[in-house]
Design brief:
The protein is α+β, with helices and mostly antiparallel strands. Helices cover 49% and strands 16% of the residues. It has three domains: 130 residues, Beta-Lactamase, CATH 3.30.450; 213 residues, no CATH class; 234 residues, PPM-type phosphatase domain (Phosphatase 2c, domain 1, 4-Layer Sandwich), CATH 3.60.40.10. Helix 1 runs antiparallel to helix 10 and helix 12 runs antiparallel to helix 14.
């Protein structure tokens, strides 16, 4: 695949992959945020339903306790319940109760007396199976006033003494709670809303475009607005007149309702006063007689007051079931003691309207009509606002999962949140469908991805000519390289820029020129031909290095170093090198002749990177042709001359060449640190070498320095990277400290031990960071016999 195609493909992939990640992340984050918001909202709704249930339970308990404090009929009395007082006391909680049941205690009653039960009843709202009333009763006997309770008790005692007591189990008194009429609400018709919207639109248009409209258009718009306002006023007046009539009629009905309740209360009060007077007269006459029923006061409404028949067993079972259902909802029974003169004479309990309680707890449909609220009691009875909600829950499998206590977080396209009332165990929940919202998110994500792909393809249209322009010079270099590889050394590449491609073209031109000169001189002599082959190889290596990236150049530089140290009978050799982060310039190599002469070389190219690697390559090629008959200084002079002829610019390299012939050491240096010899007999350090300029610079005055070695002497060759090594504070190790470290390391038993000690010293000083310069050690120890 060509570079142009690779560049276009890379641009496409680098655009599509981030776009895909962004779209997927955006969709998932939006979905998570949406589900989290819905879940928080549903959780708030469940807490709200819990608060409603707690409020209703507390309100009913408080109101029922207040009702128990009102004058109520005892089980053996024949008193008329004051429904008006009960309604006033129950307040808003009256709509939550179908009826109040008064269960009298078992008392001793006269045989001649008849127990009469009264019932003030409308048909219970939430209990259509409640027993109906029968015929219109005679006027009831009102209960005594609270301040006359003692007199009434005396009368009861007198009557009881005149007849034998007979235990009787009184039937309960059931008091139905009728609902008050409701007031109508005014609702604006759709036609009226349409008129308002049209007036608002025309007004906005007239206000924003008044400067651009002609006088005729403004006049027409103003007339249209005036006509619409007249039509709206006429429609509103007609609707308001109709609503006012309904409101007045409902208000009148409510007033009649409350007036009737007030009349009942006043009649009951008059009846109690009359009963008090009769009781006093009877006590005065001391004549036992049954208490006569007193007719109600004139104008007293007796509507809804009937003599109730005794409850049948089935009706009692219905009441118990109704009470059981209320207990499951509230976790308690609404039953308080009924006291008369401090004595418990019975119990009063409320028959709760279960549908009304469920309606209030679950609430009405809000802005989100798809949201479903539901409740489940301890008997796994499910309550919903309507039958459609129940069917929806069943179809989604929510009801079955809740009843089986399965997890609710993994229901597909539904958010379900549950909460449990700690007192009753009633579980309330909110189920909200999110499938449509998630589908909309998926569609939006798909659209965004499609738009992004379209933009990428549009961008690729512009990338193609740019890639052609960028790779045009690469094609020229490629074709030139092919022609040079085929032997056409007269090929020259046009240098059109100063970037890497231009530098590579210039290098090709230099390479072609050098190769051409080498071919011209190859016929002159064999030595010149060999030098040309070496130079051609160096140039080829330079070409290969510049074609690779920095890491390839680093590996290439390291590959030029020996893979292992030579094994010698008289000397123990060990090496160590630590390269910097860039391509290093340190170099070492060995040569062993057939007659046992060991030659070692250590070099350090100036700088780092491509130029340093090129210089190392040149020296490596020159040293590969070294023969042991040539002395080190002669080799350095010859190498310096060849490097100059290569015209490598400012590239230079310090190089040291050491020749070990028997116990004789000959050293020549071109700008390198001297060799350090540790004498085993006295532990002193001797420097071997004379200073000179590096290869590639001016001057070629190199000299040999020779010394004799004794067994156990240790020779160290190193680059300046070790004494100039920096620690974490930027402080250099120093040449004196480096010599001290060598003195300490020379105590090692072998050359490898010396190298290990020096490497440890470098690591201690530099730490785990890459060194600021290449560090190289070459240790040669004369073996003992």
């Amino acid at each position: 695949m060509k570079i142009r195609a690779q560049l276009v493909l890379a641009c496409f992939l680098l655009s599509v992959l981030p776009l895909s990640v962004i779209v997927v992340y955006s969709y998932r984050s939006s979905r998570s945020a949406l589900e989290s918001a819905y879940r928080k909202e549903a959780d708030a709704r469940t807490r709200q339903m819990d608060r409603r249930l707690t409020t209703i339970r507390g309100d009913l308990q408080q109101r029922l306790a207040e009702v128990s404090a009102l004058p109520m009929p005892a089980g053996a009395s024949d008193h008329t319940p004051d429904v008006g007082n009960i309604l006033m006391t129950m307040g808003d909680a009256a709509s939550l109760v179908d009826s109040l049941e008064i269960q009298p205690m078992r008392v001793a009653v006269p045989a001649a007396r008849t127990i009469v039960q009264q019932d003030v009843r409308h048909a219970p709202r939430g209990n259509p199976n409640a027993p109906p009333g029968v015929t219109q009763p005679p006027p009831p006997t009102p209960p005594p006033q609270a301040d006359e309770s003692a007199d009434a008790g005396d009368e009861a005692d007198t009557n009881v003494k005149d007849a034998p007591d007979a235990p009787e189990s009184p039937e309960p008194v059931v008091i139905a709670i009728p609902p008050p009429p409701k007031l109508p609400k005014f609702t604006m018709a759709p036609e009226q809303r349409a008129l308002i919207n049209e007036i608002s639109t025309l007004g906005t248009k007239l206000g924003m475009s008044a400067q651009t409209m002609s006088p005729e258009e403004r006049t027409a718009a103003e007339k249209r607005i005036q006509q619409l306002q007249k039509d709206l006023n006429a429609s509103l007046q007609a609707s308001q007149s109709q609503w006012r009539g309904q409101f007045d009629a409902a208000q009148k009905e409510r007033e009649q309702y409350f007036n009737a309740r007030e009349q009942q209360r006043e009649a009951a009060l008059a009846a109690r006063r009359h009963a008090r007077d009769v009781a006093r007269a009877q006590r005065a006459a001391r004549a036992p007689a049954p208490v006569a029923a007193v007719a109600p006061a004139v104008g007293t409404t007796t509507e809804g007051v009937v003599i109730k028949r005794k409850l049948t067993d089935s009706e009692k079972q219905q009441l118990r079931d109704h009470e059981r259902q209320a207990t499951l909802l509230f976790g308690q029974k609404f039953n308080v003691p009924l006291r008369k003169e401090g004595t418990i004479v019975g119990h009063i309990s409320a028959q709760v309207s279960t549908p009304e309680v469920v309606r209030r707890v679950l609430g009405v449909h809000g802005d989100d009509a798809d949201e479903i609220t539901f409740a489940i009691d301890r008997d796994n009875n499910v309550y919903t606002r309507n039958a459609d909600d129940r069917k929806t829950l069943d179809r989604a499998g929510i009801t079955d999962r809740v009843l089986k206590n399965h997890p609710l977080n993994d229901i597909k396209e539904w958010i379900v949140v549950m909460s449990r009332d700690p007192q009753s165990g009633l579980r309330v929940g909110v189920a909200r469908p999110v499938g449509d919202n998630l589908e909309e998110l998926r569609k939006t994500a798909g659209k965004n991805f499609g738009y992004g792909i379209a933009l990428i393809f549009v961008a690729l249209i512009g990338i193609v000519p740019i890639a052609n322009h960028m790779t045009r010079d690469v094609n020229l270099v490629t074709r030139g390289a092919e022609r040079i590889a085929q032997g056409d050394l007269m090929t020259r590449l046009p240098v059109k820029s100063n970037n890497e491609i231009g530098q590579l073209a210039a290098a090709f031109n230099r390479m072609a020129q050098d190769l051409s000169l080498q071919q011209q001189t190859i016929v002159e002599q064999e030595r010149t031909r060999k030098e040309q082959e070496i130079q051609q190889r160096i140039l080829e290596l330079e070409y290969d290095r510049k074609s690779l990236d920095l890491e390839e150049a680093r590996r290439f530089q390291l590959s030029m170093l020996p893979k292992s140290v030579p094994a010698h009978d008289r000397y123990d050799v060990a090496v160590f090198t630590l390269t910097a982060a860039e391509v290093g310039g340190d170099y070492y190599d060995f040569h062993v002749s057939p007659n046992g002469i060991l030659t070692a070389t250590v070099g350090d190219a100036t700088g780092h990177g491509a130029k340093a690697g090129t210089m190392v390559t040149v020296v490596k090629a020159l040293f590969s042709g070294y023969t042991p008959e040539v002395m080190p200084a002669e080799f350095l002079r010859d190498a310096a001359e060849k490097v100059k002829r290569m015209d490598l610019g400012r590239m230079a390299m310090a190089l040291l060449l050491a020749r070990f012939d028997g116990n004789r050491l000959t050293v020549a240096s071109a700008g390198m640190l001297p060799g350090y010899v540790h004498r085993t007999r006295n532990g002193k350090i001797e420097e071997v070498a004379r200073g000179a300029t590096p290869l590639g610079t001016l001057g070629a005055d190199y000299h040999d320095v020779s010394i004799d070695l004794t067994p156990g002497d240790t020779v160290l060759f190193m680059t300046d990277g070790f004494p100039e090594l920096q620690n974490a504070n930027g402080q250099q190790l120093g040449y004196a400290a480096a010599i001290d470290e060598f003195v300490a390391a020379a105590k090692g038993a072998t050359a490898d031990d010396v190298i290990a000690s020096l490497a440890a010293a470098a690591k201690r000083w530099n730490g785990e960071r890459p060194p600021n310069d290449d560090v190289t050690f070459v240790v040669v120890r004369a073996k003992t016999a």
